[in-house]
Design a protein that fits this description.
Arc Repressor Mutant, subunit A, mainly alpha, 205 residues
Length: 205
């Protein structure tokens, strides 16, 4: 018990990157420490995407399962460990959005014609929103990784440019240039002013 306590205290003084290295060796305690550090932020981003506590918890758990399975692939020179973890959770949240949209689009065999709601209004609106969401996700996927990361964290996570600079460990000017270039490219890809206004993230400094 004392040995375990000493190990936990040592881990609290390690960097996030060192914790990921331990996770790659199968250290469950290191994964737990990483969860304690990053889990709250990662859950917040998942919840902003999914707007559902249960689904956000699913995304968080699936994201950390991905951390456990792929820790050996992490490269500290490419991104901070916390950013890498948050990105994995974010990807799981987006996957769940798509999964839930497919599930809702499937016909409900148990619904009779008498009980079924009139599809003329809400069904068309939902289909259009799903189509627009897919267009935006597709456009984001076409951006360079650094630009997509900044825009997704700003929109889904609600972070300001200053907060992103601190989180990603880069100068504020770099964040601004990534956001500017990324949004400009998104405008070209979406090519619709209404869609552009809907999906433009908060850009406060």
């Amino acid at each position: 018990m004392r040995q375990d306590s000493l190990a936990l205290r040592r881990q609290r003084h390690l960097s996030d990157e060192a914790l990921v290295a331990l996770v790659a060796r199968g250290d469950e305690a290191a994964l737990g420490e990483l969860y304690d550090r990053v889990g709250r932020v990662a859950y917040g981003i998942a919840f902003r995407i999914l707007r559902d506590e249960r689904l956000a918890e699913d995304a968080l758990q699936e994201g950390f399962l991905a951390v456990w399975r792929s820790a050996a692939t992490f490269r500290a020179e490419r991104a901070k460990a916390s950013t890498w973890v948050v990105t994995l959770v974010h990807r799981r949240a987006v996957d769940i959005v798509r999964r839930e949209e497919r599930r809702r689009a499937e016909p409900l065999e148990a619904t009779t014609a008498q009980d079924a709601p009139d599809p003329a209004g809400s069904a068309e609106d939902e289909a259009w929103l799903g189509f627009e969401r897919e267009r935006v996700l597709g456009a984001l996927a076409a951006l360079p990784d650094a630009q997509r990361e900044a825009i997704e964290l700003a929109y889904y996570g609600g972070y300001s440019q200053s907060e992103l600079a601190e989180m990603l460990g880069v100068p504020l000017g770099t964040i601004k240039s990534r956001m500017f270039a990324g949004l400009a490219r998104l405008r070209e890809l979406l090519d619709e002013s209404d869609t552009e206004r809907t999906w433009t993230p908060r850009l406060t400094s």
